[in-house]
C-alpha cells in the first residue's frame, strides 16, 4: 500500500525546527535535575545555532526558569519558542509526532505511547501531540491518531521508501502479531515500500527493548551508521557482532550492499553498579550539522570522525550526554525534528 502524495522524510532533509520538553521536578529527572539541565542547555545552544527550537514547558514558572537558564548561556532566544503543555517525561522522540509530507501539506501520525510497554506512567505523554496540535503549533497539518503502540525511536527511514527497525522491540510491543503483519502495517502507515528487520543488537541500560536509534541509522547515499563493539571481553560483543553481520547482509533497493560506518565503543559507564547505554548511534541531524552524544570517553573523538565521514558537509557538534543515559536514553531520544515548511 503506497500513497503517491505522501512520504516519510529522512532526518537529514531540511527541517523547520526541533521539538524538546524541558525536564522539571515532576519528571523522573527530579533527583538529578540540575545535572541534566546542563545537557538541555548545551543541546538548546547547539540547535539554535542552526535552526529554531520548540521547548515544551509544564507551566509559566518552568518557562521563566528555562528562559533564564538559556539566556545565561547566551542562547539566541529569538530562535526559541516555548509551548505550555502537560507531559510525564521528556522523551520526545517517542511521544512526539511522526511527520509525513503529504502533497503540499503535512500529516502528523500520533501513535499510542505506552512508555515502552507500560514501564512508566504515560497518559499525559500519550496526549502530547493532540494537545500541541489543538494549540495550532503545527499549522494546518492533519493529525491522524493510530491506536497502535509505536515509538519514533523504533523506526528509521531513508526518505526513499525503506524502513529499518528491530524485531525485538516491535515483537515486545505486539507479541500476537507476525513479522508479515507488522511489516504490512508499518509500510502502510509510514508509506514505505519495504521494511528491513534486525534480529540482533541491544544495549544494557536501555528501556526501549532495542530501539533502532540506539543501534543503526541510515545516512545519505545508501549508507548505514551503526554501533559496533570491538571489545571481545564486553558483554555486548557477540550480539553487536551478529548485528554488524546482519547489517552487512542488507541490500539497497537496487541490490547493492550498503556503505557501512561502524561507530567506536565507549568504555563501560556505570551508575551505582548499573551499566548505562552509551551509544554513539543516538545522534541528531539538524540543518548543516550532526549533534553527537559525547560521554567524556576517548572514543568521542573517533565517533565524531565516523559521523563526519557518513554525513559530509555537516559540522559535528558534541553534546555532553552522560546525565541523559542515567535515565536510559540519549540525545536522539529527547528530540524530534520537524520537516521544513511544517511551522
TrEMBL record:
Spell out the protein name for this chain: Agmatine/peptidylarginine deiminase
Instruction: Kindly list the GO molecular function terms attached to this UniProt entry.
Output: agmatine deiminase activity; protein-arginine deiminase activity
Query: Hydrolase: is it a keyword of this entry?
Result: yes
Show the coiled coil region(s). Answer: none
Biological process terms in GO annotation: putrescine biosynthetic process
| InterPro entries, per the entry | Peptidyl-Arg-deiminase_porph
Stored SUPFAM superfamilies: Pentein (SSF55909)
Keyword list, A-Z: Hydrolase
Please verify whether the record's keywords include Zinc: no
Q: Which domain of life is it from?
A: Bacteria
Amino acid at each position: 500500500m503506497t500513497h503517491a502524495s505522501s512520504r516519510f522524510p529522512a532526518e537529514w532533509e531540511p527541517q523547520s525546527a526541533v521539538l524538546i520538553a524541558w525536564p522539571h521536578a515532576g519528571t523522573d529527572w527530579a533527583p538529578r535535575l540540575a545535572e541534566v539541565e546542563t545537557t538541555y542547555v548545551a543541546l538548546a545552544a547547539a540547535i539554535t545555532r542552526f535552526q529554531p527550537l520548540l521547548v515544551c514547558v509544564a507551566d509559566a514558572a518552568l518557562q521563566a526558569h528555562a528562559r533564564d537558564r538559556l539566556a545565561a548561556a547566551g542562547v539566541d532566544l529569538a530562535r526559541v519558542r516555548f509551548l505550555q503543555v502537560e507531559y510525564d517525561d521528556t522523551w520526545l522522540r517517542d511521544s512526539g509526532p511522526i511527520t509525513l509530507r503529504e502533497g503540499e501539506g503535512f500529516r502528523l501520525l500520533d501513535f499510542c505511547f505506552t512508555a515502552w510497554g507500560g514501564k512508566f506512567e504515560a497518559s499525559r505523554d500519550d496526549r502530547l501531540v493532540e494537545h500541541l496540535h489543538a494549540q495550532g503549533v503545527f499549522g494546518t497539518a492533519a493529525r491522524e491518531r493510530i491506536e497502535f503502540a509505536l515509538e519514533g525511536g523504533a523506526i528509521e527511514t531513508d526518505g526513499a521508501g525503506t524502513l529499518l527497525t528491530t524485531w525485538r522491540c516491535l515483537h515486545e510491543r505486539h507479541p500476537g502479531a507476525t513479522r508479515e503483519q507488522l511489516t504490512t502495517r508499518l509500510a502502510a502507515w509510514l508509506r514505505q515500500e519495504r521494511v528491513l528487520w534486525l534480529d540482533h543488537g541491544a544495549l544494557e541500560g536501555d528501556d526501549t527493548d532495542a530501539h533502532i536509534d540506539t543501534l543503526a541509522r541510515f545516512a545519505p547515499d545508501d549508507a548505514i551508521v551503526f554501533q559496533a563493539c570491538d571489545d571481545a571481553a564486553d558483554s555486548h560483543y557477540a550480539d553487536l557482532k551478529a548485528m554488524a553481520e546482519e547489517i552487512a547482509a542488507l541490500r539497497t533497493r537496487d541490490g547493492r550492499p550498503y556503505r557501512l560506518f561502524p561507530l567506536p565503543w565507549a568504555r563501560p559507564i556505570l551508575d551505582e553498579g548499573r551499566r548505562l547505554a552509551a551509544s554513539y548511534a543516538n545522534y541528531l541531524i539538524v540543518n548543516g550539522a550532526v549533534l553527537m552524544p559525547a560521554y567524556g570517553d576517548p572514543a568521542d573523538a573517533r565517533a565524531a570522525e565516523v559521523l563526519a565521514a557518513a554525513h559530509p558537509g555537516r559540522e559535528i557538534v558534541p553534546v555532553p550526554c552522560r546525565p541523559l543515559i542515567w535515565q536510559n536514553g540519549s540525545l536522539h531520544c529527547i528530540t524530534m525534528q520537524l520537516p521544513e515548511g511544517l511551522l
